[in-house]
Inverse folding.
């Protein structure tokens, strides 16, 4: 096949069938006709393999003819790629499909036993680990609590013990280990696999990929928790049918993960998505980042609790008083939602006020990024039944007409597992996006030792 290469951004696109290798310019003049080198052919093959795998991920099962239609690749290319993927054990044939016209075709899908991935979430108060197969079905999970008094070494050791247990489960099932994904609440250098700064953990410059890569001898992917969660929703959550989305992560603060055209947008230095720190109330409450009036101080979990507390201290009547036995320090978002579910007017009122401010911020994001979906995660997903109607109304009111009509605001599909499933998505994303064309050799990490040192 002949490809055009864009003069400006070097992206490729297939040339029309009638293109001739003597042409130097595409008809529009902005594309140079490329005579593919060996390196180009390898790249094109990788891209095509990725298209086929991702098509099977989102549309499974499909026949070769169906794949050809869905990917736009010709049938012989699809057949050649499928032959390779069958050999590598990444896809499997599951039976004949009798279509209304033409010969029956063999249906294909991703092979669940192609391997297993480990997802890890290191949070402020927990360590969570899951083991999944190649189609993200959870095979094993464990979660332990952490304490703010725990040292970094103690938390890492606890996480390593769980990862090892997960790998042993995978090994006992005869599954090859595909890699380890790790979501952490802080700024991450994804390229280096290094946690740069996690203010709520108090960690700085921790080369997690290097540490775990050496220990487990597997690919290790480290990502900010909101970015990982966004990828998790894109791969196997509410956003699996969209290409552009913004995930809002409400834990202690308010973070965001942005996916544009199926890829995480990390920005120039990995800081993209810090939507909680856009100024929405100049001169407002002091934020953890040191500025005032950030969106996080208006709609984050702490803001929800603060509003309810102020209303109660101002003499407001609410069953939250009874739920916390008069101890206002015990109020959290779970309790506010619980009260709202019981019809408590004060709790519902507080969530209503939040949802207007959430809607205004989301409308700003919609105008900038034009996403197909905005996903509410963490504490916001718990409260979503009370938030979504007003958010949707506010977005329609404040966003530009066309992007405001298109966007759908949804609650996360994974609840408390959003980050850890996102960590699994980091591993699968790497394989589905950059599939190796040489067989992935079955491997057992040599570092699988019985006990931690
Ligand atoms: Zn801030």
């Amino acid at each position: 096949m002949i490809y055009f290469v864009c003069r400006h951004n070097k992206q490729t696109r297939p040339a029309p069938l009638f293109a001739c290798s003597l042409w130097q310019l595409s008809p529009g003049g902005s594309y140079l006709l490329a005579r593919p080198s060996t390196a180009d052919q390898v790249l094109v093959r990788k891209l095509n393999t990725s298209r086929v795998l991702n098509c099977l991920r989102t549309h499974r099962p499909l026949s070769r003819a169906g794949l050809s239609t869905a990917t736009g690749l010709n049938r012989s290319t699809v057949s050649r790629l499928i032959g390779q993927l069958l050999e590598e054990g990444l896809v499997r044939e599951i039976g004949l499909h009798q279509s209304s016209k033409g010969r029956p075709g063999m249906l294909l899908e991703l092979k669940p036993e192609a391997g297993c991935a480990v997802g890890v979430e290191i949070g402020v108060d927990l360590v969570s680990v899951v083991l999944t197969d190649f189609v993200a079905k959870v095979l094993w999970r464990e979660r332990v609590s952490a304490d703010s008094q725990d040292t970094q070494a103690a938390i890492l050791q606890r996480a390593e013990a769980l990862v090892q247990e997960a790998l042993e489960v995978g090994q006992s099932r005869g599954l090859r280990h595909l890699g380890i994904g790790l979501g952490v609440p802080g700024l991450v250098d994804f390229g280096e696999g290094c946690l740069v700064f996690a203010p709520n953990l108090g960690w700085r410059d921790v080369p997690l990929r290097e540490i775990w890569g050496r220990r487990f001898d597997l690919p290790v992917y480290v990502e900010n928790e909101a970015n990982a969660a966004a990828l998790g929703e894109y791969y196997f959550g509410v956003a699996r049918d969209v290409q552009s989305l913004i995930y809002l992560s409400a834990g202690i603060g308010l973070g965001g993960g942005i996916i544009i055209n199926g890829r995480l947008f990390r920005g120039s230095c990995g800081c993209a998505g810090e939507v909680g720190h856009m100024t929405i109330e100049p001169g407002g409450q002091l934020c953890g980042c040191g500025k005032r009036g950030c969106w996080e101080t208006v709609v984050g979990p702490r803001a929800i609790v603060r509003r309810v507390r102020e209303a109660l201290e101002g003499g407001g009547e609410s069953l939250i008083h009874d739920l916390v036995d008069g101890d206002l320090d015990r109020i959290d978002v779970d309790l506010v939602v619980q009260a709202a579910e019981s019809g408590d007017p004060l709790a519902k009122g507080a969530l209503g006020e939040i949802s207007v401010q959430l809607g205004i911020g989301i409308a700003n994001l919609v105008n900038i990024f034009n996403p197909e979906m905005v996903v509410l995660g963490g504490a916001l997903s718990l409260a979503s039944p009370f938030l979504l109607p007003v958010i949707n109304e506010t977005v329609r009111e404040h966003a530009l007409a066309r992007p405001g009509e298109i966007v759908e605001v949804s609650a996360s599909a994974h609840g408390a597992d959003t980050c850890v499933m996102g960590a699994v998505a980091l591993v699968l994303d790497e394989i589905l996006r950059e599939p190796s064309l040489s067989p992935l050799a079955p491997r057992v990490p040599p570092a699988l030792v019985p006990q931690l040192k």
Notes: The chain has a mean pLDDT of 85. The first strand starts at residue 3 and ends at 6. The longest helix spans residues 345-369.
